[in-house]
C-alpha cells in the first residue's frame, strides 16, 4: 500500500506526502493530534503543541495542514478508514447471517473505536470533512453512510433510491448519537444504551428497507 492511500480518498491535507519519510512525519502529526485531543480537548489543541509532541518543525505542520481544523478532519478520515478496515475484516472472517447482524457488528466496531482510539470520542466523526467542496458540507456520518450503502448492496443485495440513502444516513447519525450517549453515561460505554442503539437502528431500518 502506498503512503498516499493511508489517508483515504477524502482528505484535508494541503498536499499528500509522496515519500515514505514525509508520510511518516504526517502520521506522527496525526498521532500527536489524537493524543492531545484526548488529553486537552479540541478547543485547547494548537498546531504548536502538535509540532512539539510530534517532534517536527512547525513549518512541517503547515506544509501539510492549513490549521488545526484541517488536521482534525484528516484524523477523522483516518479513523473512518480504520473503522471500515476493521469492519471488513470482521465480515470476511465471520460473514453476518443477515443485515441485522451486520448492523450489530457495525455498532460493535464503532464502540470499539470509542474505547481504543485516542481522541475518537471527542471528534465523534461529526465535523465537516473536505470543507472546500462548494456544493455541500460532508460529515463523517455522510462518509460512513455512503460506504454502508455500498456494503448493503454488495453483501445483502439491498439497494434503493435517494430516499433509501437518506434513510441509511439517518440510521448512521442515530447510531452515532446513541453510542455517544452510552459513553457519556459510562466511560466504558453503558451496555444498556449500546443495546438500545442496536434496537433503535434495526427497528428503524426494518420499517424502511425496500
Automatic annotation (TrEMBL):
UniProt-listed SUPFAM superfamilies: Homeodomain-like
GO molecular function: DNA-binding transcription factor activity; transcription cis-regulatory region binding
Location of the HTH tetR-type domain: 23-83
The organism of origin for this protein: Glycomyces terrestris
DNA-binding region: 46-65
Pfam families documented for this protein: TetR_C_22, TetR_N
Protein name: TetR/AcrR family transcriptional regulator
Keywords linked to the UniProt accession: DNA-binding, Transcription, Transcription regulation
Keyword DNA-binding: yes
DNA-binding recorded as keyword: yes
Amino acid at each position: 500500500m502506498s503512503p498516499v492511500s493511508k489517508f483515504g480518498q477524502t482528505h484535508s491535507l494541503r498536499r499528500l506526502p509522496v515519500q515514505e519519510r514525509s508520510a511518516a512525519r504526517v502520521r506522527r502529526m496525526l498521532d500527536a493530534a489524537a493524543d492531545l485531543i484526548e488529553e486537552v480537548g479540541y478547543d485547547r489543541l494548537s498546531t504548536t503543541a502538535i509540532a512539539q509532541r510530534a517532534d517536527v518543525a512547525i513549518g512541517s505542520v503547515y506544509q501539510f495542514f492549513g490549521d488545526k481544523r484541517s488536521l482534525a478532519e484528516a484524523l477523522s478520515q483516518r479513523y473512518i478508514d480504520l473503522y471500515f478496515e476493521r469492519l471488513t475484516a470482521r465480515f470476511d472472517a465471520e460473514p453476518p447471517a443477515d443485515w441485522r447482524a451486520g448492523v450489530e457488528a457495525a455498532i460493535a466496531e464503532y464502540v470499539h473505536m470509542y474505547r481504543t482510539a485516542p481522541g475518537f470520542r471527542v471528534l465523534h466523526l461529526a465535523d465537516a470533512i473536505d470543507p472546500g467542496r462548494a456544493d455541500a458540507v460532508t460529515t463523517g456520518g455522510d462518509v460512513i453512510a455512503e460506504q454502508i450503502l455500498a456494503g448493503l448492496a454488495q453483501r445483502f443485495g439491498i439497494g434503493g433510491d435517494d430516499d433509501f440513502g437518506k434513510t441509511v444516513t439517518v440510521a448512521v447519525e442515530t447510531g452515532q448519537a446513541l453510542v455517544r450517549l452510552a459513553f457519556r453515561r459510562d466511560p466504558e460505554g453503558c451496555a444498556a444504551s449500546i443495546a438500545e442503539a442496536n434496537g433503535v437502528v434495526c427497528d428503524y431500518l426494518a420499517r424502511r428497507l425496500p
